[in-house]
Predict the structure of Molecular chaperone GroES.
Amino acid sequence: MLAAVAARTDAQHPVGALELQQVPRPRVADLPAHWTVVDVHAAALNHHDLWALRGVGLGQDQLPMVLGCDAAGTTPDGREVVVHGVIGGEGHGVGPQERRSILSERYPGTLAEQVAVPTWNLVPKPAELTFVEAACLPTAWLTAYRMLFTSARLSPGDRVLVQGVGGGVASAAITLAAAAGLEVVATSRDATKRARALQMGAGHAVEPGQRLPFRVDAVIETVGAATWDHSMRSVRPGGVVVVAGATTGDAAPMGLQRLFFTEVTVMGATMGSRADLEALVRMCVTTGLRPVVDSTFDLADAPQAMARLASGEHVGKVVCTVPHRT
Ligand SMILES: NC(=O)c1ccc[n+]([C@@H]2O[C@H](COP(=O)([O-])OP(=O)(O)OC[C@H]3O[C@@H](n4cnc5c(N)ncnc54)[C@H](OP(=O)(O)O)[C@@H]3O)[C@@H](O)[C@H]2O)c1
């Protein structure tokens, strides 16, 4: 079957390390008990794939590795499903002995015609969502959902700063927060993206580092060094900064004095639980909210899709589809 594979790692030119390859289909006989082979209809790209191609979190001994953490597809008995991409750790269907990993780290990922996962990881796809929309949810949208509602425990009327607009997590956070009745401020380096943030439901969109009209209850931080100081200056005393990524690195000083003096909480977040994913899917159905899709590509054009993600010009999710299935 066709798959987009990290054939090697390249810190400077990660997109060039991606190859389209024919790989063996997962065979039920080779899988652990209670795993299912899913026919992938759509698989969304994430910054995680670029990190992997750069060699971050993916060792030479794991190559070649099928990329991709997000998918929606059908099971052998015809059920439409969204794939929860976290495997191992407590409650993930493979037992507590197994160290937590995300698809494409230990097990082959979703940028292929088929992916094998623990049956426990399959969440029903509602008919209201297309496969492309559903495939956007399990990583970036799930992480944004968890940051806003499970980690920061934000409520309608609360104020939140989302650093960055263009990223998958950031655009999801803006959209989800606005739908939940939060007052959203977003930052972007790009005027067009700031305008998009307002369309997505942000009340305010400013340049990175710009003073906000008010202090916020929480910051959704995935940018890292470039925005960290602004995040710490923008959160109200007693507020929370939730961190799920560091696209620009983690070299910024922590600002410890401000941290302890204003009693700010800094929390980490990684992906979300299966229960978070089910709640997110329900939220999309009941509110009519849909993921922001930047562009879709055939799986055979995965290198172009990855180049689009690497360009930083995207707003929302870049998705690959398997022809004849969507
Ligand atoms: N912990 C988890 O479970 C989890 C899940 C998903 C993602 N992540 C991580 O979260 C991070 C974001 O990933 P993503 O896929 O959502 O998006 P991405 O494509 O990495 O987005 C980059 C974001 O950073 C901003 N940005 C980039 N360079 C900047 C700079 N020099 N100054 C200011 N802003 C800058 C961009 O905003 P503008 O272009 O609008 O300025 C954009 O919003 C990644 O590091 C990823 O690995 C973690």
The chain has nine helices and 18 strands. The chain has a mean pLDDT of 94.
